[in-house]
Specification:
340 residues; alpha+beta; Jelly Rolls; 3 domains; 8-stranded antiparallel β-sheet; 7-stranded antiparallel β-sheet; 5 helices; 21 strands; 20% helix; elongated
């Protein structure tokens, strides 16, 4: 029996190891520092309000670490908040205020809920001192380097366009950097950018570029992060189909090659040039475009079909070319990427 238990344990250990994938990580810390490097990660298990969701790590783009909620801290904070909100004694309020601050970042969930409950709003209150619910919330954010709009839940972005909130339980992130191996506690992390390292020949993926979001001129997440890491000199192919209507361009209908139909029904062909390596890289409206690397400011033309060579190493990003973003755009392109 002992041998059987050992064999099962070894099998489970090897199975878990096999599910790990090599990834590139970018850790954005609460103190403003950024750490980049490599690691190994398995599928992300996110406990949501609707049950456990298992997300393949290859489909994860970003993990935004939430403040979190602890029941014991929550209950204590609520009791102090009631005193803080109702006492007429400045000293009593001061004590409750200090007790809430001592609870730390986990008290924010309780303060948020307390503040948003209409029954806790006393329009007849005459208190004008500094020990208020609003002030303690502001100080909790400031003392812990937490943004005012920070989420309680961990937020996972899937396939670069869908988000799901819940709890992703991990104590720390182990990352290999050029300066050595580091272990960063979860409570120090603001967000994590995840990119699975795809070896050559393992990058055949399909994406959907939404005209309502994935516009190159959209400064708030317009470029779609593919999760495909290219090495300098590596060949890759981008093909695209579909049609989008760009409200920013008089609701004309565009195809990935840049051809379009005007609102009066007139069809205009794609500009001469070609979608191949060595052809003009200057994009036309509606073209699929790409760049390589997180910090790249390039906008390279891919069009409907493109085969090229990565001129640098890094993550591959794609978008629909238009310099002006309009959320009223409709339609989408289906984009297939193959790295060789």
């Amino acid at each position: 029996m002992k041998k059987l238990v050992v064999v099962i344990a070894m099998f489970l250990g090897l199975s878990a190891l096999a599910q790990q994938k090599p990834v590139e990580l970018k850790l954005n810390l609460l103190d403003g520092n950024v750490i980049t490097g490599t690691s190994s990660m398995g599928d992300i298990e996110l406990m949501t309000a609707y049950g456990k969701l298992t997300i393949p790590v290859a489909n994860v783009a970003t993990i935004k670490v939430g403040i979190g909620k602890d029941k014991a801290v929550y209950d204590k904070a609520m009791s102090y908040l009631k005193i803080l909100n109702t006492s007429t004694s400045d000293d009593t309020r001061k004590g409750a205020y200090a007790d809430i601050l001592k609870l730390g970042v986990k008290a924010i969930a309780a303060v948020n809920d307390f503040s948003s409950d209409p029954k806790n709003i006393d329009e007849n209150s005459t208190y004008t001192g500094e020990y208020t619910v609003d002030n303690v919330l502001s100080e909790l954010h400031s003392a812990n380097n937490i943004d005012d709009n920070a989420d309680i839940d961990d937020i996972v972005t899937i396939d670069g366009q869908y988000t799901m909130g819940g709890t992703f339980s991990f104590g720390k992130m182990d990352i290999k950097t050029e300066y050595g191996n580091l272990s960063i506690p979860k409570e120090k992390i603001k967000s994590v950018d995840v990119s699975v390292i795809n070896p050559a020949g393992d990058g055949d993926k399909t994406f959907k570029l939404m005209a309502s979001k994935n516009i190159s001129g959209n400064q708030n997440g317009g470029w779609l992060k593919t999760g495909i890491t290219l090495k300098q000199g590596q060949k890759f192919t981008i093909t695209a189909t579909g049609e989008v209507t760009l409200a920013s361009l008089s609701n004309q209908k565009y195809k990935p090659d840049g051809s379009y139909t005007a609102t009066n029904g007139t069809n205009y062909p794609a500009a001469a040039g070609g979608d191949y390596e060595g052809a003009t890289t200057y994009p036309a409206y509606g073209n699929v475009v790409y760049h390589i690397g997180d910090g790249s400011t390039e906008t390279n033309k891919a069009g409907a079909k493109f085969t090229g060579t990565a001129k640098s190493s890094g993550m591959l990003y794609i978008a629909i070319y238009e310099t002006v973003y309009n959320a009223a755009n409709t339609g989408s392109y289906t984009v297939k990427i193959l790295n060789k």
